[in-house]
Specification:
There is one protein chain. Helix content is 51%, strand content 0%. α2 runs antiparallel to α3. The longest helix is centred in the first third of the chain and has 18 residues, at 5-22. The mean pLDDT is 82. The protein is an all-alpha fold.
Length: 80
């Protein structure tokens, strides 16, 4: 059983590739690493667009903190 969306996507991609190769079809691929893409976007414009699409409150604050501070912190208050 596949546990994550990444595993499912990889499984599906490999099936398509293997199927094409079995049919003697040429296969090619382009893979992009977008890890740093958010740091290339003007954050003011990004935040205004997020607000326009209804992203507000704590969720927007989390995004702002992550982009502006470069880290994320989660606190859980566990009561016995």
């Amino acid at each position: 059983m596949l546990n994550s969306l990444t595993e499912k996507a990889t499984f599906n991609l490999l099936n398509v590739i293997y199927d094409a190769l079995n049919k003697s079809i040429i296969v090619g691929g382009i893979f992009c690493n977008l890890k740093m893409a958010l740091y290339c976007v003007d954050h003011g414009i990004l935040f205004s667009k997020l607000k326009f699409y209804g992203i507000r409150g704590k969720f927007l604050d989390i995004i702002k903190t992550y982009l502006e501070g470069g880290y994320q912190k989660v606190e859980i208050d566990v009561k016995n």
